[in-house]
Write a structure and sequence with these properties.
With 232 residues, this protein is of the alpha/beta class. Helix content is 31%, strand content 12%.
Length: 232
Amino acid sequence: MDVPVYNMDGREVAAMTIDEASLGGAVNLALLKQAFVRYHANRRQGSARTRNRSLVDGSTRKLYRQKGTGRARVGMNRTPTRRGGGVTFAKTRSGADFRQDMPVKMRRKANRNALLAKLVDGEVKVLEAMDFAEPKTKAFESMIDAVGVDRSCLVVIDPTNANARLSARNVAGIDTVPPAQMTCFELLNHRYLVIARADLEAWLTGPSAKTDKSAKALARSRTSAPGVEGAS
């Protein structure tokens, strides 16, 4: 598959050849769905809580006398049947864990397959380079418009490229991630992908390319260090 490469003015200056077989050959919807649900579930905090009638602030006084009013008998205003009262079956767990697991090989295949889906739909904009002389939002907006981005966009920016990162932070509909965090979840949550050619080549040949038996050993070695967790 030949993907056009643009400069920052939106002109096509070259073409980049990407092997579809290395990205899965065909879009695997079942794999993408499983991976997307997994990423989404792992972002849940599990901290939702509700209050029962004993935890709601308010008086325990009976609203009015039991008999003689002609109305239905009631108790305090914190009962679940009244607005602002407690919840009948309140959530009181100290923590809920919604995390899901997926083999590292499947995660990486899903990430690469999501890129293939973007390439098939023509939603990947590869830039020859992303060089900004200074942090300037207007220059970044001009670049985005020049390559034909008119919807939500994920821009992959190397952490060392400070000018590009600062230029993109105030643009509506634009989210930025480093190359190591270009995952299935981020790709599918945005219409377009904008990435520099060097960053895309490094991602295609980096750890994400390890989808065989060596992937598990590599992931284990990366997460063995304290405080280190692989993003792929």
